[in-house]
Amino acid sequence: MTEKTFFTGFGGQGIVSLGQIWAFCAMKEGKNVTFFPFYGAEKRGGIARANVIISDTEIASPVISRADSVVVMNQDSLAAAEQIIKPNGLMLVNTTLITEPPRRTDVRIVSIPATDIARKIGNEKTANMVMLGALAAATNALALVETESFFKEFFPEEKHRLIPVNTGAVAAGKEAVRTA
Questions:
Q1: Which of 35, 78, 126, 166 is least enclosed, having the fewest CB within 10 Å?
Q2: Confidence (pTM)
């Protein structure tokens, strides 16, 4: 199994963190991983992207020319996602912030109102964790069964108070795929 995922959105949405956490969870589940972030010089509002490859076998290059799956968090990032996704790939779309549908008709689109779900949970900043759960459920690339323990290792001690809301967001993302 190899899953090449392209994450895209704007700075402040936790795109790079989402890629890091996806890669970290994959390592904890015994997978080989590459993580390649890209972001603009702006602190918030600029381009934020990450490439993550997870595989049961060795990975030759961290570069993704054709993604198996993409996570698109905002309208401005949709064009880049449509360019990199392979035919029959999976596109997870944050429909809270993406109002114009993707143009590609040769991909599987799963609409997840990630930002709305995160707001209902009580923390809009967890929209990226909603998409983490949705990606796991839609690809079956990771189980994410031990999310709480993974987060305890990943996040510094001062952030542990946020683990319950983040694990709740992951669960909500998984459920959103099941009911989509």
A1: 35
A2: 0.94
